[in-house]
Design goal:
Order of helices and strands of chain B: EEHEEEHEHEHEE
Helix content of chain B: 10-25%
Helix content of chain A: 40-55%
Shape of chain A: globular
Mean pLDDT of chain A: 97
Distance between the termini of chain A: 57 Å
Strand order of the largest sheet of chain A: 12-11-10-13-14
Strand content of chain A: 5-15%
Oligomer: heterodimer
Mean pLDDT of chain B: 95
Largest sheet of chain A: 5 strands, parallel
Radius of gyration of chain A: 21 Å
Low-confidence stretches of chain A: none
Strand content of chain B: 25-35%
Chain lengths: 408, 136
């Protein structure tokens, strides 16, 4: 990679050991992907939940703090793994909470803002068209790239941290025009009706793409999606396919850059309702008993919270209901009485966490939860590997199922 | 000895026994990292122990968590020795860099999951972009 004078100095350790680690880590990754140089970034979003980093990851963060590491650009965080106001009832341990506290302490010491959200594009600051970023959380990246037209690769926690310290990232992948061109085409003969339908559509496209390096372009969408709908669409696509970018004709900002000539040689896939229903059928059946209902992945927006509150009104549940939202939405929802409405039913709202990165395996064992129902296509995909038998239904049916203790 | 050429990788030279499948990979989605086995029921390696094996898989998939997880797995010595992909995504490369885990991808001779079978012994040289199939 071609390095500037400043980058060479960082690499030699002239700016300290923390920056030396950071830039050399980025160089190694850049060389792996044939990056020619670095690109400056305006902000960073980092995934750093305690389940993923473990004790050794925390020690790594604390080592950087001792090196006097400080971030150079605004840097925020993905959801936490432990809601420190509500972890014992979930079967989470003091050891988990301790890792969480140490992580927060270390990140804060480096100047990282603990926003604890995977919907920062709805709550903190929406990225701009063409803005170069170093974002973690696949849902955040795919939304920022596709809906906002910003430019970020999936930056895992270590690389996001390195980007925060150096203020730059290797210029490869989605920072380059040529990697943003469509590689595969979809025609949709199906009209999604709710968040779960949008998630299923995204999941199918992601599943067919099956690669970080495929860029789908989608035609035939008749219902212009809301922010929450396209959030579920993108999050599911990224989860099922590791896909970081999509274009939708008439919806996303870069789709218009590609004409029929650009797309004529791409393999075309058609999606219809039978494809959607086939995937839906893999996740539970009417009448199946359930152990818990979870609304998360991504964290709920204020609109989704309002909807859950209305559905919960005057209801009581046979199984636990968990709702995960960001601290930003939580405080608004609290002020407007929405948290009270939801929790009056017996449901519990967790703030700054997302269920699947909360030691979901250990929670399942501690609470004897196996049959988990959610309206999130992303979470049912993830939790199959965590010992759960996940089931999928839309938000309304999830609430009705929680009342009955089985899928309605 | 057969040598398979690939793109320059990350990590130290290692030798070990292959565990191969034409399937994708995520540390979060597919592994029971406590017990060191593949835990996703519909994964082709479901139930297989992966610690100290040379994993050979199609592509990396899923979320960003795998980057920290590889570091955590290596620190507990509950990691594979190396991972060979047809195509790695950014997360697995980034995580391998922090963890000091060997990773290679983009093989010149085609689909690496069909070129290497479970049980074969190989030597992986990421600096030179070479995987050598060792005699039985």
């Amino acid at each position: 990679m071609k390095l500037s004078q400043e980058e060479k100095a960082m690499s030699k350790g002239e700016f300290g050991e923390a920056l030396k680690w950071a830039i050399n880590h980025q160089k190694e990754v850049g060389n792996f992907f044939d990056a020619k140089d670095f690109v400056s970034i305006s902000s960073v979003h980092m995934m750093v939940d305690p389940e993923s980093i473990g004790v050794d990851g925390v020690k790594f963060l604390e080592k950087l703090v001792k090196m006097d590491a400080k971030v150079r650009v605004p840097m925020i965080t993905d959801p936490r793994g432990v809601d420190l106001d509500y972890y014992r009832p979930l079967g989470q341990t003091e050891e988990m909470a301790d890792i969480e506290r140490r992580t927060i302490q270390a990140c804060s010491s480096m100047g990282i803002l603990m926003t604890n959200t995977c919907v920062n594009y709805q709550t903190v600051m929406a990225p701009l068209l063409g803005e170069h970023l170093a974002f973690g959380d696949t849902g955040v990246v795919i939304y920022s790239n596709s809906v906002c037209g910003a430019r970020s690769n999936f930056e895992g926690g270590p690389s996001a941290l390195a980007a925060g310290l150096t203020g730059r990232t290797p210029r490869y992948g989605l920072h380059l025009d040529e990697k943003r061109k469509p590689t595969i085409k979809f025609t949709v003969n199906y009209e999604p009706q709710d968040l779960t339908d949008w998630g299923l559509l995204g999941a199918l496209i992601g599943k067919i793409c099956g690669s970080y390096w495929e860029v789908p372009i989608v035609e035939g969408i008749k219902n212009f999606p809301s922010s929450d709908e396209i959030k579920h669409f993108g999050a599911a696509m990224a989860s099922f396919g590791s896909t970081p970018l999509f274009h939708i004709k008439g919806v996303t900002p870069e789709a218009k850059n590609f004409n029929s000539n650009d797309l004529k040689n791409l393999v075309l896939h058609e999606i219809n309702s039978s494809n959607i229903n086939s995937l839906r059928g893999e996740y539970g059946n009417v009448g199946d008993e359930i152990d818990v209902v979870v609304f998360a992945a991504p964290q709920l927006s204020i609109f989704e919270m309002q909807r859950v509150a209305k559905l919960c009104s005057a209801k009581t549940f046979k199984v636990p209901v968990l709702v995960c939202t960001s601290p930003q939405v939580y405080s608004d929802a609290h002020r407007m009485g929405i948290i009270h409405q939801i929790e009056n039913s017996g449901a519990k709202v967790l703030q700054g966490t997302c269920f699947y990165n909360q030691y979901a395996r250990e929670i399942g064992v501690a609470k004897n939860w196996v049959k988990l129902l959610s309206n999130s296509t992303k979470i049912v995909n993830i939790l199959g590997g965590y010992g759960y038998k996940p089931a999928l239904a839309n938000m309304e049916k999830c609430i009705l199922s929680a009342i009955e203790g089985k899928i309605v | 000895m057969k040598i398979l050429k690939c793109h320059i990788g990350i990590g130290p030279k290692v030798s070990g026994t292959v565990l191969s499948a034409n399937d994708n990979f995520s540390a979060r989605y597919d592994l029971d990292r406590i017990n060191g086995v593949f835990s996703r029921p519909n994964h082709k390696l479901f139930g297989e122990p992966y610690v100290d094996r040379i994993l050979v898989l199609n592509e990396s998939k899923g979320g960003v968590a795998s980057a920290w997880m590889l570091y955590e797995m290596c620190a507990r010595r509950m990691a594979p020795k190396a991972i060979l992909f047809n195509k790695a995504n950014t997360i697995l490369a980034q995580g391998s860099s922090l963890a000091g885990l060997t990773i290679c991808d983009r093989f010149e001779d085609g689909d690496i999951t069909s070129l290497l079978d479970t049980g074969q012994n190989v030597h992986v040289d990421p600096t030179n972009g070479e995987v050598t199939v060792l005699p039985d």
